[in-house]
Amino acid sequence: MGTDCCDRTKGNGFKLKEGRFRLDTRKKFFIMKVAKHWHRLPEEVVDTSSLETFMVTLVGALSNLIKLKLSLFNAGGLG
């Protein structure tokens, strides 16, 4: 599992490289399950110096996302 820094993509600058597999077993690999979600995280979440800081910033980012989705749902923008 490596990281690939790219300025042309959305989200954070630490992209995970997904390998190519020929079998459906690839869906069971950790990297295949989390790569899409990892790429969507803001850079301030993934570029932390400790696990504790990562967890705090991750919880903050997820709670902001939930609040946004709830406000859009209540406004009639989702559903």
Outline the structure in words:
With 79 residues, the protein is mainly alpha-helical. The chain folds into two domains: 1-47, no CATH class; 48-79. The protein is built from three helices and two strands, in the order E-E-H-H-H. Strands 1-2 form a two-stranded antiparallel sheet. The protein is extended, with a radius of gyration of 15 Å. The mean pLDDT is 75.
SSE topology:
Blueprint: E1 3-4, E2 15-16, H1 30-40, H2 43-46, H3 51-74
The tally of strands reads 2
Overall SS class = mainly alpha
Mean pLDDT: 75
First and last CA, distance? 36 Å
Number of contiguous helices: 3
Q: Please, how many domains?
A: 2
Helix content: 40-55%
Global morphology: extended
Q: What percentage of the residues does DSSP assign to strands (E)? A: 5-15%
**Strand order within the widest beta sheet:** 1-2
Question: Low-confidence segments, ≥5 residues, pLDDT <50?
Answer: none
What is the string of helix and strand elements?
EEHHH
Spatial extent as radius of gyration: 15 Å
- Biggest β-sheet description: 2 strands, antiparallel
